[in-house]
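User: I'll paste a sequence; please echo it back and then give the predicted structure.

Assistant: Echoing your sequence first, then the prediction.
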Amino acid sequence: MIDNEVFRKNIACTPLTDSTVVQAGPGSGKTTLLVERLKYIIKHNTNPLSNVACITYTNAAKDEIMLRLHGGEQKLSTELFIGTIHSFLLDFVIKPYSHLIHKDNQTYKLAPMGFARGHKREIGLMMNCPLHSINEGIFRAFESIGFDEQGHPYCYANKIPPEVALEWKQLIWRKGYIDQQDVIYMSYLILKNKQHICNALSARFPYLLVDEYQDVTFYQEKIFSLFKNSSFFCVGDTNQSIYSFTGAKPEIFQEKWKNKEYKNYTLSNNFRSTAHIVKFSNYKTKITQIEAGLNASIDQKVLLIKNITEAYDVIQLFQRIRLNIECEEHHKPYMILARQNNYVNQLAHFLKKQEGNLNPFLKKLKKEHYRRFQILYNLLLAMSYKRRNEVNKAFEKMGEAFSYLVFNEHPNYVALSEIEYDAFMWKKLQIFTLNFLNSFEFSETSVESMFQELKDFISNTSKVMYGKSIGNKLRMLHYNWKNQVKASKSTMLSELIEQIELQVDFSENTESVMSIHSAKGQEAECVLIMAESESQLMEWFEDNLNSEEARVGYVAFSRARKLLCLWAPTIHENNFAHLHQHVMCIDDTYAIQTEDA
C-alpha cells in the first residue's frame, strides 16, 4: 500500500474496536499519526464512562502530545490520561491497591530519584567493596533493578549479582518503598491475581494507545495482555530497539505486529532526512524507508572524516562545515553524539574549557584596551549571529557594541540626547551598520581596515540619514593598535568570527553533546557521531536485525536532517567503499574547499 495522506487517514480512522500495530521508522510522522488517532477516538467515543489512555515512553513525548492536542480544535477530555506507563500504573494500580500485596496491609511509597545514594554503606556491604569504589553508575544500577521472566530481581545492566539484587529489593520493601521497576512488576501481580481489578481497569480504559512499543519490557507486555476488554493502537520501530539494559526486547514488538488479531501497517515515508541519509541508513535494515520530505532534494552526502586523530579538531571541522548548511530556526542546529556516557562527559568537559580560550589577538586587546575589546567582540558576535539568521541576538550585540563605542556605557544607561537621537534612529543606524558589516569579504578584511571603513560608514550614514554629526563620538574606531600594529593588519575577520562561533556554540549548546541513547526521539539539522574506535564504528554499520549495537548506530544516523558526519580516530577508507554512492570521505581541507566554492 502506498504511504500517503489517504493511507494514514485510514489508519487513524479505523473502527474504535479494532486493535492496530504500526511500524513507524525515524522521521515517519508517527507522533502526528498517534495524535490523529487520539483525536478520532475522543471525537467518536460516545460512552461517557469510557476513558482513553495514551502511554508514552518519556515525559517529553507526553508534553509534545499534550501540546499538539491543545493547539488543535480538539478539546481535552477530563477522562483522558496521557503519560508514561509508570505514572499510569502508579495512579490506577499501585496507589489504590498496593496494600493488597504489602505484608502490613499498607500502600507502598515510590522511592525518590537518588534513593540509593542514601544507602551507600549498605550497598558497600552487599557488594563487598570499599565505599570509595561505589560510583554513580552503581547507584543507577541499584535504582533500575528489574525482574527476570521467573520473577526474580535481576540487573539487566549486568552490574549487580542476582543475590545482591534480591537483598536490595528486600531492604527497600522493608522500608515501605518501591522503585520504578517494582511499579511494573507489582502492578502485574495485582492485575493478574485480582481479576476483578483488572476487569474494572480494562472496562474503564477500553482504548489504549502505546507509543515506542519496541521499548516495552516482558512484564509491561504481560500487563497489556491482561486488558482483554481494551482495543490497542501501538506504534513502534524494531530498528530502534536499543534498551535491552531495561529488559526491552524487539521480539515483543515483532510478535505484536505479526499477531493476526491486530491490523498491521508500515509507514514507509521519511520526512526528516536527505535522500543520501535515508538510503545510507537503509543499508542496515530490511524495512526500507523512502525519502519524502523537503530535505530529500538536498544533495548532501554523508561525510566520513578521516586523517584527524584529535576529537577537538574534528568538532572544529564539523562546526565549520555546518555553517554552510542552511538551518531552519525552529529546529535544533546540531548534535554531537557518542556511545558511552563517560566519553560524552569527557567531550562536554573539554569543550566547556574552550569557552574562555580567546584568539591571541583578542586576548591581548582585552588586556591592552578593554573598551575597544568590548566593541570589537560584540561586533563580531553580531556578524556571527546575523550569518546564522539569529537576528534578534545580532541586534542585541550591535546594541552593546554601539553603546560602548559612542557612550562607553551598558545599553541600559546610554543618554541618546547627547547625540540628539531617539530610540528609533539609534536602532535604525545599527541595522544599517550590521548590513554593511556583513557585506565584507571576511577572509580578505583585516581588523584594522574594518575599523577604518566602519568609522567612515557610521559617520556618513548619520549625516545623510539624520543630518547629525557624531564623528567625535567614534574615536574608538580611530585606533593606532598599540602593541598590535602588525597583528591588526594580518588578522582577518574570518579567523576571529570562526572561533567566536565555536565558543558561542559551546556555551549555548552544551546540552547538544549527548549519548546516542539520550538523543533517541530527537533530531537536529546537523549531526556529528564520534566513535571511540573504528571497530566501534564498524559495529554500528552491521545489520540491525541481529545486533543491538547496530541498532544503536541506526538510531544515531537517523537523527540528522541535512548533514550527517561520522568519525573515528583511525579510518580505513576501503572499509566503507561499498557506501560510496552516499558517503564522501573528507579531511580537514574540506571546509576550506567548501568556503572557496
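The chain has a mean pLDDT of 90. The first helix runs from residue 5 to 12.
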